[in-house]
Amino acid sequence: PPRSLQHRAKPARSATSPAAPSTEVTAANFRARAAIAAAAKVAQCSPTARARPSGAGASAARLQRWRRTQEPLVLCSTEQGLEEILSLELRRSGLAPVKLGSAWCVSRGAHTRMLQLYSATRVSHLFALVIDDEFEALTIAEDLATKLEALLEPGALEEALDAARGKQSKVPRYDIRFSSERTLEPKLRQVVSESLRRGLKKQVPWRFDEKRPQVTLWVHWGPSSLALGLASVLSAERRNLCRLSALGLLGAEAAQGGALADPCCGHGKVLQLALRIWPKEPSRVVGQDLRQAALKTAQKTLGSAAALCPGDGGQLALQPGEADAVLCDLPNSGEPEECEQLYHRVVKEAARVLRSQGRLVLLCGQPELLAAAVVKGPWKTRGAWPMTRKAEVEQLVCLEKMEDAADRRAVEAASKEIADAPDAAPRRRSRRFGKDLAFDEKKGRRCARCRRVDSLEQLVHSTLAELVTIANEAGVPTGGKARKGAQSQVGSLRFNGERRLPPAPAPLESRQISVADGEQHGMALTGLGGSRQEISRWKPGLLPLASQSKQEIDMVKKWHKASRKNCQTGCASVFVGTGGGSGPARVRAPVRFKPPGAKAGHL
């Protein structure tokens, strides 16, 4: 270990004894450092609280028995505060979990792969486990690097690799990560990482790659244990699923063991999840769906635990006030009128079967249609979270049924105000997605996959907004047809069906370009889908223009100035169409400009 691991109180050297190397660490010093790290792990705890619980001896004996019999072990952990729910899910799956630090260790037995766990953020297949006295001897050993390299056995590594992701390639790429980075010293992490890399290089022909790993070697360094395991890098989907499960189930809060219903159960995935990690087993599970094939699949998945019957979501086989929660993944396909009718049936039936303060958790891709159905019932919004599924942004909404008379009067008054307003559905513009959402969003940490998708959508939206701003500043006529979701679109300009662009029209001194002016110049807009939309088909009025914020204008000032310096005669005019704004488009004389590095006729 490097010099930084040495204790500050160095022992005094005698005049006759030779000077010790600078990298040498005595057993007493390293034991003191290990005690400091362990104390930081259990900070603000009394000595009696740090004592082992009554079941710790049985758990340690079980771990020792698994090690003697060489059972394949799996370490399951969660980052969403679902430790108890994860333990409950493991027990209901027929596994006996053992607490190991902040995670749960189980033996997967004869199962080649681990069962699907909805509440687990990370599942690591262990190939080395050091506990109790062996871990204490490891922490005080002077040759820590040699001890760590001895833990790497080729047979155990290959077995863990096969269980984690399968042998898809002979030379997999891996990286090393620590589950306890906040409590482990940086220099100690560096020593452990370098030792494991050297040991793997000697034992197996794997490649270390931090940018494109295929598997991750997780180091679980706890107060009294060290576990090394392999996990698949496809953990972003697991984190997304775990976060969705945590929000939906904790938002439902059905801890009384009552009935549970799903008006559009499909193949029964939502009900299967509820049966596995529900705090208390529901007394009844009811599901409906219009498709007979889906009901057969759901019956095979759920078995006799659920009562499934065909239906359109409007007549659940439950008494009024019998259900604790209603969970549903609402269909998004079909005509808007059909979806709106389905949402009204589901919400109305949920209001009938739910008890007082019961929860309705819905995952919907059209929240504006859902809001129109919610405002007519005795509902109070508990929270709403944006979700990403197959590159589509949906919304997870948690509602609570109100039974108090004052709450009912407040809901009726709010519904009357909304009905009298021009816009029937309460909408709120989301700054993250650029679309109208019908419920307030709760801010929280988003998974890596959601950040990537949202950043891509935000990048496209910001880029199109910059193009509109540049066109407005340069005096290019802008306009377009408003599209649903306030998504911008860029169109190509054609004059009288010809590909070439004619000279710019005469200057329009701060006039509002109406549809008649557009038809006079013979303009037509070609949208993103390739369909040619004539201006003559639009409704009479002024072309809408998306309102730009001051931040977006300041963001492109420098590039706009550079564009105006490179203005050249003969370059093509630019026609940009956007949607989602309101108000007419005020433009000056069209100016033909050429951005830096662009060819003539292209933007």
Automatic annotation (TrEMBL):
InterPro entries: Methyltransf_25 (IPR041698), SAM-dependent_MTases_sf (IPR029063). Residues 12-24 have a biased composition (Low complexity). Keywords: Methyltransferase, Transferase. Residues 1-11 have a biased composition (Basic residues). Residues 1-24, 478-506 are annotated as: Disordered. Residues 262-358 form the Methyltransferase domain. GO terms for molecular function: tRNA (guanine) methyltransferase activity. It holds the Pfam family Methyltransf_25. GO terms for biological process: tRNA methylation. This is Methyltransferase type 11 domain-containing protein. It comes from Cladocopium goreaui.
